Amino acid sequence: MTAKIYYDKDTTLDPLKGKHIGIIGYGSQGHAHALNLKDSGLDVRVGLRKDSKSNAKAQAAGLKTDTVEKVAEWADIIMMLAPDVAQRDIYDKEIKQHMKPGKTIMFSHGFNIHFKQIVPPAVVDVSMIAPKAPGHRVREVFTEGSGVPMLIAVHQDASGHAKEIALAYAKGTGGTRAGVLETTFKEETETDLFGEQVVLCGGVTSLVKNAFETLVKAGYQPEVAYFECMHELKLIVDLMYQGGMNYMRYSISDTAEYGDYTRGPRVIDANVRKSMEKILGEIQDGSFAKEFITEIREGGTNFLAMREKEKKHQIEQVGSDLRGMMSFIEKPKDKGAY
Fold first, then answer.
1. Which parts of the chain register pLDDT below 50?
2. pLDDT value at position 338?
3. Residue 78, SS3?
4. What is the pLDDT of residue 278?
5. Cα 94 off chain centre by
């Protein structure tokens, strides 16, 4: 089955003209969506806590801000871009009462809808535009005249125009310049969680740490281990990003390529594949979501302990010192806040 992909020619901004668009949150994605929509000539306001430090940032960028409740009352289209763990409380306390017929509530990730943490009334449209890039990249490429690929999904089409509105929103944020792929809330949520846990975050960090620890235990200098197992990872990922695995293999040495074919499958073997399948099952049956939601609602003690432990890992200490000497590396950006 071929995926349906939409581009600039497939939509216009007309469904958004005369509409009020409320962006809830001004973090990584929030600032990008709000500024891109504003630059597209649309009527945007940002909803934030009264004491949020992001109020000053948004206002300095030329955006209007107000409390979440007032923005939710004002807006025809509400995009939820506060952190996943905060969205249910925000919705219940400040948005739910303003979900009137004809309104649209949107998400950039399907977690809270798919796992029924948020259940909007049947009289509103529920849709998703999910950029496949961090918010700072969404903003950066938009200002350069391009865009990042995005996903579109409709969970509830009360008006009969939910898809048109979502596509127009994607156009306003730059997504249709690159391509907007049609999916469902279920598919986006489950594949996103799987990718994060098994490859992009969990898999990569565990692979890097274990390789680093293996070299250090064998008596090699931590600094050399850092360069070989972490620093150079970007070079390989950039090659794959640019031209796929074959281009990466074309670009590296024959020695590295041979090691790829013969040793890689020994590291990521059938047992790892079984673990991946088990993790996918936990995502599909909702047990991961239940575990995560319970952890956060009980104060996140284990989550915060794991965060602090990882900050103290030797690879982080060595890496911090080495990166401090690399003037060519851009300093990490502030995520912003709700």
1. none
2. 55
3. strand
4. 98
5. 24
Is 20 an active-site residue? no
Alpha carbons 15 and 13: distance in angstroms, whole number? 6
User: What confidence score (pLDDT) does residue 335 get?
Assistant: 59
Token code pair at residue 192: 């996103």
Position 333 scores a pLDDT of: 66
**Token pair 């003037």 in the structure block, residue:** 327
CA atoms within 13 A on the CB side of 289: 20
Could you write out the DSSP letters of every residue in 282-326?
HHHTTHHHHHHHHHHHTT-HHHHHHHHHHHTSHHHHHHHHHHTT-
Among the listed residues 109, 136, 231, 313, the single catalytic one is 109
Task: Determine the Cα–Cα distance for residues 210 and 218; give it in Å rounded to an integer.
Answer: 12
**Cα–Cα distances in angstroms (integers) from residue 280 to residues 192, 198, 286, 295, 322, in the given order:** 11, 9, 10, 20, 36
Q: Give the model's pLDDT for residue 87.
A: 96
Q: Tokens 């640019």 map to which residue?
A: 242
- Report CA Rg, the chain: 22
CA–CA dist 287, 199 (Å, integer): 19
180 has which bridge partners? 6, 150
Q: What is the pLDDT of residue 58?
A: 96
- The CA-CA-CA angle for residues 251, 256, 257, to 5°, reads 65
Q: Residue 161 and residue 158: Cα distance in Å, rounded?
A: 8
Say how far apart CA 190 and CA 213 lie, in whole Å.
31
Among candidate residues 48, 5, 1, 40, the one with its CA nearest the CA of residue 19 = 40
Tokens for 61, please give them: 């960028």
Per-residue confidence (pLDDT) for residue 331, from 0 to 100: 75
**Cα–Cα distance measured from residue 201 to residue 238, given in angstroms and rounded to the nearest whole number:** 16
Find the length of the chain: 338
* pLDDT of amino acid 99: 97
pLDDT, one tens digit per residue, over 192-247 is 999 999 999 999 999 999 999 999 999 999 999 999 999 999 999 999 999 999 99
